[in-house]
Specification:
alpha/beta, Dihydrodipicolinate Reductase, domain 2, about 25% strand, single chain, Rossmann fold, 10 helices, six-stranded parallel β-sheet, about 325 residues, globular, 2 domains
């Protein structure tokens, strides 16, 4: 599969490194930026075949099988439309779009044009999800607490509302999607515990609870301070601790006496390889969406993020 990268920001480096470490089914074929000098630098650094100084040139290349969209949040919608118009399969960096209405429109347009589209919420594709599902299969869940805090408020993409900034879309999406993967989308309510905003009107701290029938999944994010980030799940018999909600390196299982009874360690290439593999296999099988993180899940997640923002404005 020949992969093109659209947008050469920080995340593009990780994708280029990942693809170059994968097997011969995956080729870093093209890189594209609006700055041809930057594209040429990426081409040389990561040994890509082609470098383009415009996104249009990339999507018009008949050799490209999949385009990874790595631009800022506010441009995902525009760039997915560009790819769909040229019949290019898409893996787009999270969040899928800025809101639910944009997401619905893209999903419908992709189906109409027979184009594969996947949201690159990388954690959703990782094998640790299967381990957690097995651990929870016969357990009564008592609580979930997921927190992701990192000081990124000085990044332009975070501190500007018009760019899709804020803690929720950049960080909160991880613990929220983590809970949804484990416990499903049949929740009773979304409650905002607290939400703080900067002078530029982006959320800097968001604390919400997804209310299920018998327990609460609490999800917290903060983009101004480097607090500890982790996931903690308490069941009738165990406490399950995961070192982070975005790219876990271990899961530790403790009994009710806080004795470690099981431990799982993960040594991925980078963690991004799993979303690329899912796209490859899904496209090969003629699907228009990934197996691990379906359009339904993408749309429902966008609906929840919209719900939080709407409630916060009231």
């Amino acid at each position: 599969m020949k992969i093109g990268i659209l947008g050469l920001g920080h995340i593009a480096n990780s994708l280029c490194e990942t693809i170059n470490k994968m097997d011969s089914n995956y080729e870093l074929y093209a890189v594209a930026s609006r700055d041809i000098i930057k594209s040429l630098e990426y081409k040389k650094k990561y040994n890509a075949t082609k470098a383009y100084g415009s996104y249009l040139d990339l999507v018009k290349d008949d050799e490209v099988d999949l385009i990874y969209i790595a631009t800022i949040n506010s441009l995902h919608y525009e760039h997915m439309r560009l790819c769909i118009e040229h019949k290019k399969n898409i893996l787009v960096e999270k969040p899928f779009t800025l809101n639910y209405s944009e997401a619905i429109e893209i999903e419908a347009l992709a189906k109409k044009n027979n184009v594969f589209v996947a949201e690159a919420l990388w954690t959703s594709y990782m094998p640790f999800n299967n381990i957690l599902s097995d651990l929870l299969k016969n357990e009564v869940v008592k609580s979930f607490y997921g927190v992701f805090n990192v000081n990124v408020i000085n990044h332009e993409r975070i501190n500007k509302k018009e760019l899709g900034g804020g803690a929720l879309l950049d960080l909160g999406i991880y613990p929220i999607s983590f809970a949804l993967r484990l416990f499903g989308f049949s929740y009773k309510d979304i409650i905002i515990n607290n939400m703080y905003f900067s002078n530029s009107n982006v959320d800097t701290h968001t604390d919400i609870s997804i209310m299920y029938d018998d327990f609460e999944a609490r999800c917290v994010c903060n983009c101004t301070k480097d607090y500890q980030s982790y996931v903690n799940i308490v069941t009738k018999n165990y406490r399950i601790y995961i070192d982070n909600a975005y790219n876990p390196t271990f899961i530790k299982v403790f009994n009710r006496k806080e004795v470690l009874v099981k431990e799982y360690n993960f040594n991925n290439l980078t963690g991004y390889e799993f979303e690329v593999m899912d796209c490859y296999n899904s496209i090969k099988d003629g699907l228009l969406e990934p197996r691990k993180w379906s359009h339904f899940k993408t749309l429902e997640l966008m609906h929840i993020l919209d719900t939080i923002n709407i409630k916060a404005m009231k």
